[in-house]
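Homework-ish question, so no full write-ups if that breaks the rules, but can someone show me the predicted structure for this set?
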Amino acid sequence: MSQPTSSGHATPPGNHDGMLDDPMHEHQGSLRGYLTGFVLAAILTVIPFWLVMGHVIANKQVLILVILALAIVQIFVHIVYFLHLDTRSESGWNMMAFIFTAVLVIIVLGASIWVMYNENVNMMPMSPQYQQHPISHQPTGNQPPQ
Amino acid sequence: MNTTAIDAAPPAPSDYYSLTEAPPRNGTLLGFWIYLMSDCFIFASLFACYAVLGTEYAGGPTGADVLDLPGLALNTALLLVSSVVFGFAMLEMARQRKGAMLGWLAVAGLLAAAFVSLEVHEFLTMIADGAGPGRSAFLSSFFTLVATHGLHVTLGILWLIVLMVQTLKFGLNTDNVRRLRCLSMFWHFLDLVWVGVFSYVYLVGVLR
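A: Not a homework solution, just the prediction itself:
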């Protein structure tokens, strides 16, 4: 039980030191990496442009979802091939900060859209008394019906 | 069995701690990464604004009326190529080839400058057509988001010029290498944000 833990103690400082010795040559990327990223990003850019400008998909909801899905895939392509984010860079703190940010960004975006959508829907003057005078909230529109 | 293992353990806890705290050279890159993550929040909140306000046209032009897709395609290509070219510069930097690196950096900077000038031209055309930021909530959120990104790119170009002069004067010393790597992250990050802008603001914007 305690044997693996004690050996586990010994390894992290070793990794640390290797990283400290060589901060300048860490996750530099390679020509192949940049070109792979470029080709993938170009493909993932051309597809949504083609879908929109060529009117390929008639259903707008499906089209929007496809565009957003391609954008998310492309963002990950950029993160991996251009920003060289992996679990090893900066002892994992880069990845930790990224995951934290991603979670918060999803909450900010998702919750804002959700809350404001519901607010928008529920604040619409949908009850019959408002539907009779749709512009009754405007001061000038209030006068003529009375 | 257990007790013997514990008896053997005492030296181990000291291995948890390194005597030096965060290494200063690595610390800059990690700190800059955290700055970029905080920049994500600025863009996330502007994206959220656009998501909420993007269909409030106030009787004015809609996305399909004012957004120029062929111009957008050119802009997107410019920024993507600029990002990859900056990567080539970083590869030359790793090989200590200063001249080649400065050449690639100049190309990346010129592509980004072309991007910014096309964007400014697009903005001026829209404003001249009566679709300025004051026209509707849609256009306010559009201009705020896209111009914030454009401002970032503009400042990135200034930073690039400063670092090119620094490298010409002082060579590829440790400080300049570190600064260039921060700028490299900034440059790629702006291209990443642009993926969100062209996908959501423009391509989805013309559909809504």
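Now go work out the reasoning yourself. Hint: Chain A touches chain B through 58 residues (CB under 8 Å).
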